[in-house]
Design goal:
This protein is of the alpha/beta class. It has 10 helices and 13 strands. The chain is globular and about 60 Å long.
Length: 311
Amino acid sequence: MSAFPAAAVAATRILVVGDVMLDRYWFGKVERISPEAPVPVVHVVKREDRLGGASNVARNIASLGAQATLLGIVGKDEAGEQLSKLLEADGVQGQLVLDPSIHTTMKMRVLGQQQQMLRVDFEEKPSATALDALRARFEPLLASHDVVVLSDYAKGVLTEVDALIEIARAKGLPILVDPKGSDYNRYRGATLVTPNRSEMQQAVGLWSSEADLTDRAQKLRAHLQLEALLVTRSEQGMTLFNDQGSDHVDAQAHEVFDVSGAGDTVLATLAVMRAAGVEWSEAMRWANRAGGIVVGKLGTSIVTAEELLCL
């Protein structure tokens, strides 16, 4: 791999659009079973909020040294206010549309002795008014950014993702998409789509061999008019498909502790490297390295340029 392009990275400006969410963690001790029901009693001793979803993608972009802007929708509530504060603290420029009709998407996790005991999700689809407001903010932001990242967690913010891709493509900007669901026609015209293994199976069905995967991937890429398609395959590494064929890199994780948010880190690293002028195959290797680091951390986390250079 070539040297980390720190100067080029610092000059890049990346716009992230998608489903923002707050990841709330309650850490505690478990010393007894509840007399009310056969469940453990967690005595909470520490609380921590982190950026999740598209917010975590933007946070990772900033941690790698690039300039990140986040466009999303939040409710007019405590979770939305906390999300805004965290973005500011992490050096991300927030462009958040307020939707008073919903609560901010939040995932609350309860952990005892570092073991997740329970997760509670709060989520609502944004209103049509909020979606219109987001789209109105989107196009003016394109002029001051080099790359667009669309982070789809199927929470409703990217309901009109095809229109956003069309607008960005008309401006000549590269568009990287982390997809969701089985209808990939929504992402037609993007530059790169990054399904994980399960998402790829939803899109093209089960493959019987590497040759079969390559055939299905290249057909999907051609159908969607993509420059490249990257399939993240957990312990099997990552495989890139483009006009030059396929390229594969094995996983680098030394110890897998928590995979939550790993896809966000991979997407962020790909965007940063591509914006800095790195070719897709090289960008994939940097992203694979970043993913291997972040799965060794607890919860949604970041990877810094210093950590990438230490491996």
